[in-house]
Design a protein that fits this description.
elongated; 3-stranded antiparallel β-sheet; 19 helices; about 550 residues
């Protein structure tokens, strides 16, 4: 880990840090000896720290253009660090004003304000140390100071409230309590500073709980040399959580860090374990895990290879063809081996309706009322979904199989040298309708912003290949409602995918395909052999 910041940014931070410590030390002197001159020196010195903060931001912005040399997350964290340092100078000024109103100085000794300010100054010295040595343990020590200040304020607040009930020295007690609160707020700034420093060192945002979790997991794997470890964000979930690769300086991957709500982390672990029971090696191994309260984290095996989405984007036809052959051979075997004789209802339209507000918030024009296209009357979206929902209820899958649950192109890895297919991002895995995975896979290709003929032909080919494999499996299982459920699954994914697409033309194209599918299905709902218009959906 390295504090990889431009020299100009570091210099401004060091100047700002020196100004903060000067203000804090002046505040300590003011505690010891009341002085109107010293109070003015503190309260009237706001411009210098503000200018230093602004200079830091300006230099960070200039460095953003050199993204190959300086990590954008580190530069943002440096700006956050400057904000919090300047915030402490503001709290020093507020504290100096309260001290001017405090006539009963014995309160200062009773609550040991001087000791608390010295602790803050010590923490700021640790910030200087980190700027020079990149010591992550010093960042943890800053966090410990904040915890002490929180305990101090809770005790001081209780003491002050009890004293206020006696209606004596009221003004002094109020000023003293405000001073205690300002000191605790300095502690809040300190924890933000420590997390900003961690973000600079690690190259990505990370709070103290996350860092302690990471430290515990990596240490349990026998890696204690933190200066040799680096994190690199390799993906971001739609919920905002980062997925990071952990490696050593020699570029040797240790694993992949995934963190989030404990429930999701536990679901991910169970999914990984279950998939490896079905086919050993198809999913990453869990290397370490940690949880505290409602948060959890995993370090999982780093898998080599490319996702199918990457292969499509690279137009890598040979490895993509190999991967599809493997997958079309593997999936029917998985479905057969995990088959349970129980009906399951994916509730495709219910899933769609749940996500519809998010779709309409991005594309309000999709919420059509009854319209005429020539002489053809087009139903309102709500009316169409209500009709489709009633049909959906009548079409449960006749059996359940174990599915991926988020079977997008970017959640399937192919390693060409070993010709190995692997699955990732498995927290939604469970027993459900196999049609759900297939429909999600097909739409994950259609929603890619690729409009050249070669790319669209490639997506059509892999979608058709998987569909034909699935249709053959459905026929062997005498699954009579397969095509109708496929129409529902495709419509659900086509319409809900638009909430992630800002390109109006592309989003409209997907939405219209989904709308058309639902109209087509309702028009043919009594047909025993439903003619799924897959070619039209793929060729539009």
């Amino acid at each position: 880990m390295n504090l990889a910041l431009p020299k100009e940014v570091k210099q401004q931070l060091i100047f700002l840090l020196a100004e903060v410590r000067t203000q804090l030390q002046n505040l300590i002197l003011l505690l010891d000896s009341p002085s109107a001159t010293l109070a003015r020196a503190i309260t009237e010195r706001s411009g210098h720290s503000y200018n230093l903060k602004q200079r830091t931001h300006i230099r960070c912005l200039k460095a953003f253009s050199d993204s190959e040399r300086y990590d954008p997350q580190s530069l943002k964290a440096a700006g956050d660090l400057a904000d919090e340092l300047e915030r402490i100078t503001s709290l020093c000024r507020e504290s100096a004003r309260e001290l001017q109103h405090l006539k009963h100085r014995q309160m200062l000794q009773k609550h040991k304000y001087r000791k608390r300010l010295k602790q803050i100054d010590k923490a700021l010295h640790l910030v200087e140390q980190i700027m020079v040595s990149n010591d992550t343990h010093a960042a943890l020590d800053i966090g410990k100071v904040q915890q002490k200040l929180v305990r101090f304020y809770k005790h001081a607040r209780a003491s002050h409230l009890a004293a206020l009930k006696k209606h004596k020295q009221t003004e002094a007690l109020i000023s003293s309590l405000f001073l205690a609160r300002h000191i605790m707020d300095m502690g809040s700034a300190l924890i933000n500073i420590s997390e900003s420093l961690l973000a600079v060192l690690l190259g990505q945002p990370m709070n103290m709980k996350q860092f302690l979790s990471l430290q515990a997991m990596v240490s349990s794997m026998g890696h204690d040399e933190w200066d040799n470890l680096t994190l690199e964000t390799i993906a971001e979930t739609r919920s905002g959580s980062a997925i990071s690769a952990i490696s050593q300086d020699d570029d040797q991957f240790i694993g992949v860090l995934k963190e989030g709500a404990l429930r999701k982390v536990q679901e991910e672990r169970r999914g990984l374990e279950r998939w490896n029971e079905i086919i050993p090696g198809i999913a990453p191994q869990v290397l370490s895990q940690h949880h505290k309260g409602s948060s959890g984290a995993l370090i999982i095996e780093h898998l080599p290879g490319n996702t199918l989405e990457q292969l499509v984007l690279k137009q890598a036809e040979q490895p993509l063809s190999e991967a599809m052959e493997l997958m079309c051979d593997m999936l029917p075997k998985i479905w057969q081996s995990t088959k349970r004789k129980q009906k399951v209802s994916p509730a495709y339209i219910q899933q769609l309706q749940k996500r519809l507000p998010a779709v309409l918030s991005i594309h309000p024009s999709f919420n059509s009322t009854n319209t005429l296209i020539g002489e053809v009357k087009r139903p309102a979206l709500e009316q169409l979904l209500n009709q489709a929902a009633r049909l959906d209820e009548k079409l449960p899958a006749p059996f359940a199989v174990y599915i991926h649950g988020d079977f997008n192109l970017d959640n399937i890895l192919y390693e060409q040298v070993k010709q190995q297919l692997r699955f990732i991002d498995l927290h939604r895995s469970g027993y459900m309708d196999y049609v759900q995975d297939v429909s999600v896979f097909i739409v994950s290709g259609l929603r890619l912003p690729l409009f050249d003929q070669h790319s669209r032909t490639c997506i059509e080919h892999i979608s058709t290949r998987l569909y034909e494999t699935t249709a053959s499996f459905a026929e062997s299982q005498k699954d009579a409602s397969f095509k109708k459920r496929m129409a529902l699954g495709l419509a659900r994914s086509l319409i809900t995918s638009t909430r992630f697409i800002l390109d109006e033309a592309h989003a409209r194209s997907l939405f219209e395909r989904g709308f058309y599918l639902l109209e087509h299905l309702i028009a043919h709902q009594d047909s025993e052999d439903y003619p799924l218009p897959l070619k039209e959906i793929l060729n539009v």
